[in-house]
Amino acid sequence: MTQRITVLRGDGIGPDIIDSAIQILDKVGCDFEYDYADAGLTALEQHGELLPKQTLDLIEKNGVTLKGPLTTPVGEGFTSINVSLRKQFKLYANLRPVKSFKGTKARYEDIDIVTIRENTEGMYSGLGQKVSEDGSEAEAMSKITREGAERIVTFAYELAKREGRKKVTAVHKANILKSTSGLFLKVAREVGERYPEIESTEMIVDNTCMQLVMNPHQFDVIVTTNLFGDIISDLCAGLVGGLGMAPGANIGENCAIFEAVHGSAPDIAGKNLANPTSVILASVQMLEYLNMSDKAEKILTALRDVIESGDRTTRDLGGEHGTTDFTQAVLERL
Prior knowledge:
Blueprint (H helix, E strand, L loop, with lengths): L3 E5 L5 H14 L5 E5 L3 H7 L5 H10 L1 E4 L13 H8 L4 E7 L12 E7 L11 E2 L6 E2 L6 H18 L3 E6 L7 H13 L6 E6 H10 L6 E4 L1 H14 L7 E5 L4 E5 L16 H13 L3 H17 L13 H11 L1
Parallel strand pairs: 1-2, 1-3, 3-12, 5-10, 8-9, 8-10
Antiparallel strand pairs: 4-5, 4-11, 6-7, 11-12
Helix pairs in contact: 1-9, 1-11, 5-6, 7-8, 9-10, 10-11
């Protein structure tokens, strides 16, 4: 049975980089059927909504979505379109791998770190936000559940086990946030005991950030709460050349969304300048999720060769070419 994929081309540079990924998926022989849907500014202009019902229905129906960057307008009622999608489809696990590619401007070599972030709870979820009438005070609520913590930490250990990784580091701030971060750490310790073959470590979030800059090779799998994971995953992207080199997956029980994690870059939209690597790597994640690892590896090998050789690379990678030339270089290798 042919796999149907929901495709959100996104805003700004989204259509250009998504089209690049689709060409590569087709070239490697995935034989997908694509259902295109609108979200973000494009949907607002076409349908009067940031997330139209028909888009949500298609995401639910197909279960697998490839997504370009979306723009959330200021004052439109959404904390974030991405947050709304994660809540809507209970996408509890955010999976952000970073790997070094020779040929980038990265400061480090041989980086291979996966950040696994709880996606639905904690401070980042936007729970209980309010501002006093006179504007002098603002507050928000952070809520962590044992169920949510156990689910995400188990996800991290199962991924480590499946991929043959050796260590899981639980990142927290339990020394100060003794209730919420304290519960997360307590549960992480309990789950870690179930996996004696994997080294379990724990680290306070501020020290983690410092250690990632000073000695990133000590990390393998990082698991943490929502807000800390949002920050750490971008820091990790900086180790390998920036957000243009980092994909993201949002995983739930019955649904998964794979995305470029960078913004929509409206200043270069339509100019054939964007590096499509992030969404190509998200496509690789999608293929692995669909148990199509052989095709995922072919794309990864071709992409790595283009970047390492400098053949038709984009400006951020030190080249002078655009999205279409970069894509063509990958296609030729496939």
